[in-house]
Each structure stands twice: as structure tokens, then as C-alpha cells.
Automatic annotation (TrEMBL):
GO terms of molecular function: glucuronosyltransferase activity
InterPro entries: UDP-glycosyltransferase, UDP_glucos_trans
UniProt source species: Leptocoma aspasia
SUPFAM superfamilies according to UniProt: UDP-Glycosyltransferase/glycogen phosphorylase
Protein name (Swiss-Prot/TrEMBL): glucuronosyltransferase
Signal peptide location: 1-15
Topology relative to the membrane: Single-pass membrane protein
Known EC number: 2.4.1.17
Major location (coarse): membrane
Alphabetized UniProt keyword annotations: Glycoprotein, Glycosyltransferase, Membrane, Signal, Transferase, Transmembrane, Transmembrane helix
Localisation per UniProt entry: Membrane
Length: 276
């Protein structure tokens, strides 16, 4: 983790070589701000992106390396539109949770196909192995960066909002009391009735199971790439630093680990004036 710290803090190093494995879409907007700042501070930054990138604009501030993919932009657009449509349809619990879960798995598998294509590209993997990177900065929502970091035996930092099944706290062994911290798909607030707390506890018991299903393709690929059985916890708990894109004071009260840094303000880096 020391190499990650030297890369991210100004004045502590003469510059390192950082591989960035982003997630497409809106996740890239705030990560791009960090990548540009790291480049300005003298670090050699290489962004690894698919040839068909969805909602990702690049600049000249850093080097971009692309890898071939089999999906078309239309296929990715359609997968995301189906995902949005499910979220805009009102259903009673638990039908709403089941529908959102199925839609989330579908959109994940559609976009994760690009990660599979990365590991099929021997030319890209050869370049990454020979480039001598010091560390990896990645958004782990699709797990591709975490798998690649372990494949290249490099330290890595997460730049993220959170995992769908509370994995960002469970893997780091942070407590997350079910009595007042609502789980995803429960649609509860922190002020729950007794039966809502029972519902919250039941969802908690199922979290790892449904997360294993959600990330099933990622677990299968990581086991093939790393040549061993891999769990979700194995993939994420060795992250050197967790850069969390939300504000501690707006979240539910809980202890966190020393390598977790809250950077919620980064989401407001590109601000626009309010309309009059």
C-alpha cells in the first residue's frame, strides 16, 4: 500500500507509473478528474479502455490504450435502456427487488463481456505485463480491474461508490448493523418498524448469495485467469486504499478502516451554475 500512497499524495515521489482501469458511463466522470490531476503532478498515467467505450470521453492529459471487444455500442445501449426501464416501473415488494436484481445481472453481464475480451487479447496482456506499472487505480463495480491487478501482481486502489451487497464494508470487516442500516433492495430508511428490521435481517443473510450470482461471470473469469478458486472477498479485500465517492456525514454511522478515504466532494468537481 505504500506505493499507492506515494502515487496519490503530492510531494512524496518523483512520479510513478499508474494503470487506470475505469468503469464506463457516469462513473468515469469523477474518476477522470483524479486521473488528470495525477498526470499534472508528474505521474505517467495509462488509461486502459475498450475500443467500444460507452459514455467515455478522453483527453490528451494521459495516454489511452484500447483493447478489442466484441460488443457493439447498440448492444450496450440496449442493455442499459432495459436496466433503466425496470427501475422506472413500480412493483410491490419483493417483485420490485427481484426485477431490479435480474436487470442488474443482465446489464452487468453485457458490460462484463468487455473484460472477457480484454483477457482474450494476448497482445494487450503482453503490453501490460511488459510496461512495469507501479500500481492500478480502478473502479471495481465490474471487478475487471481487481482481477487484472491480481493477474499482474500489482497493488491496487479502489475508486468507487459502493458494491450492491454491502461488500465494500463486509470485505473490509467494517460493522454494518442491520438494526438501522437498510440493505439494498429493502427500500427502507434508517427508521424501521420491527417487521422492516426482520426484512432487513433476512436480506442481510442473502446478501453474499445474491452477490455471488450477480458477479458469477466475474468469479468464473477470475478463477480461470488466476488458476485457483476465487471468492468475492478474495478479489476485493486486498485493495490497498479505498477511495469512497460519498461523504461520511451523509451516511449511516459506523466505524471504517484506516485505508478508507471519503472523497464525496469529487462528484461536484465539474459544477454548473443553477438556471435562473
Amino acid at each position: 500500500w505504500i506505493s499507492i500512497l506515494l502515487l496519490l499524495l503530492p510531494g512524496l515521489s518523483d512520479g510513478g507509473k499508474l494503470l487506470v482501469v475505469p468503469m464506463v458511463g457516469s462513473h468515469w466522470l469523477s474518476m477522470q478528474e483524479v486521473v488528470e490531476k495525477l498526470s499534472e503532478r508528474g505521474h505517467e498515467v495509462v488509461v486502459l479502455a475498450p475500443e467500444v467505450s460507452w459514455q467515455m470521453e478522453m483527453t490528451q492529459a494521459y495516454k489511452v490504450v484500447t483493447h478489442p471487444v466484441s460488443q457493439t455500442l447498440e448492444e450496450l445501449d440496449n442493455a442499459f435502456q432495459e436496466y433503466v426501464a425496470v427501475h422506472l416501473t413500480e412493483r410491490p415488494f419483493p417483485l420490485n427487488a427481484l426485477a431490479m436484481y435480474k436487470a442488474s445481472v443482465h446489464v452487468f453481464n453485457a458490460f462484463f463481456g468487455q473484460c472477457k475480451d480484454l483477457f482474450r487479447s494476448q497482445e494487450t496482456l503482453r503490453f501490460l505485463n511488459q510496461s512495469g506499472f507501479d500500481a492500478i487505480l480502478t473502479d471495481p463495480a465490474f471487478m475487471c480491474g481487481a482481477v487484472l491487478a491480481q493477474h499482474l501482481s500489482l497493488p491496487f486502489a479502489f475508486f468507487m461508490r459502493g458494491f450492491p451487497c454491502n461488500l465494500h464494508f463486509a470485505a473490509a470487516q467494517c460493522s454494518s448493523p442491520v438494526s438501522y442500516i437498510p440493505r439494498l433492495f429493502s427500500f427502507n430508511s434508517d427508521r424501521m418498524t420491527f417487521f422492516q428490521r426482520v426484512e432487513n435481517a433476512l436480506i442481510t443473510l442473502l446478501e453474499l448469495e445474491y452477490c455471488n450470482g450477480f458477479y458469477g461471470e466475474a468469479l468464473q473469469l477470475s478463477s480461470e485467469v488466476l488458476q485457483r478458486d476465487v471468492s468475492l472477498t478474495d478479489l476485493v479485500n486486498s485493495a490497498a486504499i479505498w477511495l469512497l465517492r460519498f461523504d461520511f456525514v451523509f451516511e449511516y454511522v459506523r466505524p471504517v478502516m484506516p485505508n478508507m478515504v471519503f472523497i464525496g466532494g469529487i462528484n461536484c468537481a465539474k459544477k454548473k451554475p443553477l438556471p435562473k
